[in-house]
Design a protein that fits this description.
With 476 residues, the chain is mostly helical. It folds into three domains: 21-204, Growth Hormone, Chain: A; 216-267; 275-470, MFS general substrate transporter like domains (Growth Hormone, Chain: A, Up-down Bundle). 76% of the residues lie in helices and 0% in strands. The protein is globular.
Amino acid sequence: MCCMTTLSAEITARRQPAAAPTEWAPLVILMTGTFVFVLDFFIVNVALPSIQHGLHAGAATVEWVVAGYGLTTAATLITGGRLGDRYGRRRVFASGLALFVLTSAACALATSGAELVIARLAQGVAAGVMAPNILAILGVVYTGARRMRAISVYGMVMGLAATTGQLIGGLLVRSDIGGLGWRAIFWINVPIGIAALAAMRRVPESRDARGGRLDVLGILLVTAGLTAVILPLLDGRQHGWPAWSWICLALAPPLLAGFAGYQRALARSGRTPLVNPADLAARGPAAGLFTQLVFWCQQAASYLFLALYLQYGRGQSALESGLTFTALAAGYLTTSSFAPPLTVRFGRRVILGGALVAAAGDLALAGAVHAGTSAATALLVPGLFLIGAGQGLCITPLTTTVLSYATPTTAGTISGMLSTMQQVGNAIGVAVLGVVFFGAVDRGYDVAFEDSLFATAGLLVVVAALTRLLPKPQAS
């Protein structure tokens, strides 16, 4: 979704001349891609009942509309980053965005559940090609204070796309613009994407000067390994953990170990691996990527369970639940704009504080849920606001801390790994925390949601503890 500076470097950077408006044009274009690919992970949830009714689709098809996008996105991210390094980040980003526009139209035009699932799988590939190059381009185009502002905007856009996705989806489905119904949630990507593509020449081109042949075997190994992890986690629970899901999970470690070994062998022989182990060997990237994984294990899961609780536990419509989400969005917006300068001053303590604030929000929300489903929705607001505020203090600082170790030659690799940890964390969180949530649904959605909140609060405490492993961000 890139360097953080130390305080002295930040003071120096502030002496740079103010950026001309045209210098921020690349940021606007890149944030367009950020918004649509994050939005489409969340916006579809509120439209699922309409999709199922309109296409006469079964439950398994609807599950794949959600899971398929996450699966192919996660499996493509590392490859997307390396393709950008090799062939040009602007070129690959533009290609991914163009494919995203086409596949969004295909989703909107689907006449059956099977067609929609295939289009969503392809849309996820497009997102996986596009996403890592956004961060890589930001790290090359902007330096010093401008880079900090750019990453801050990236974090805000990503968070707002996630927190407002429910509201935007509810508004589009409720408005039924032109009789499109649920199809509008996909059509909305088309004019936005076309506008960004028309202005793409404003984005400077960059690439890895080291060149080298594309590591095709590495792509196959990492794609197979990530799929073997994510596919059973996304789809196994719904089918009662059949034999194939356990076989996939058993195959994942040797596939990923084989990928890692092959990458080391390529690096030793002087060839160009898909992921150079040396790029991730330092304590900063390794600790940051693991912290990123744990943080996102609770992020997407908490949004999903909140949506289910509001609609099924409290009987809210898609639009009403989207409006409830705005309390979370308000908390995120309040803190995310201040997170970068706070990190300059306080370093990893900002992430620690953000994780604890979000955990406190989970506990406050659990207390409101404990009051019963008949309690006023207003009682949920304080907890939701704290969750959003805590996330705003975590996402941008964590992203910039990891990316502070990226160079022009490694930006695509580290960006791809960072985005991959996010998507893998999403899948693991939904699967593992789903056992907690869905295992308690028979006792009521309020009980299930309360149990899941205790679990997500526990994960946030782990994130807070992991910040002790994070070194200070490197200076630009």
